Known about the structure:
Layout: E1 3-8, H1 12-29, E2 37-42, H2 45-53, H3 57-74, E3 78-81, H4 90-96, H5 104-114, E4 119-123, H6 126-130, H7 133-139, E5 144-146, H8 150-162, H9 171-188, E6 192-195, H10 200-203, E7 208-209, E8 212-216, H11 217-229
Parallel strand pairs: 1-2, 1-3, 4-5, 4-6, 6-8
Antiparallel strand pairs: 7-8
Helix pairs in contact: 1-11, 2-3, 3-4, 5-11
Amino acid sequence: MRTVGILGGIGPESTVEYYRGIIASYRRQSPDGSYPSILINSISVSKLLGWMDAGQLGNVVNYLADELQKLVRAGADFGIIAANTPHIVFNDLQRRSPIPLISIVEASCAEAKKLGIGRAGLLGTRFSMQASFYPDVFRRKGITVVVPDEAEQAYIHEKYVGELLANTFLPETRARLLEIIQRMKEQEQIQTVILGGTELPLLLRDESASGIPLLDTTQIHVRAVVAELLA
């Protein structure tokens, strides 16, 4: 049996969703109803956010690489980062990793391509919305990524860090995010919204909003993991 190593805890609630999702999907597809082999290393989100705020991405890479080595020593055959924001250094981490890593961005791009999307909105932390790692990957498949305006980005980031990562999911925050999605659909002509933060699907649990699909990056990533486990 192959083993997946998960860099989790970024934040904890979405890591729980990964664990549950991988088990449920694996069991549905496994003829004998067996459970998958999963290793989780729950790491410090506060360290990562602090380094990202300071623009110290080298520290982020070093930290993730060290924590990934623990999963490798424990027997992981391949790995994932159970979060979107740290994918800002995914390429650097993959180069240093002795095992393959499955990218949440690549998996989400494949899903958007399958849906025939040409223009996608992106919600996430400020780091994710302002970085190039989502647009770069999606552009290679002919998909344009659009982000909210500056004020909307500031609001989303504040609520993400202050509420969602603290396991607080408020109806007024949900309502405001739905307003942002509606505006982006009307003014930016987006055809889908990438929930580019693994806590966002815990707040926006519907499959669509304003008549367009919501891409749940957590579940998309989970499906990619299970496909690899069963390969």
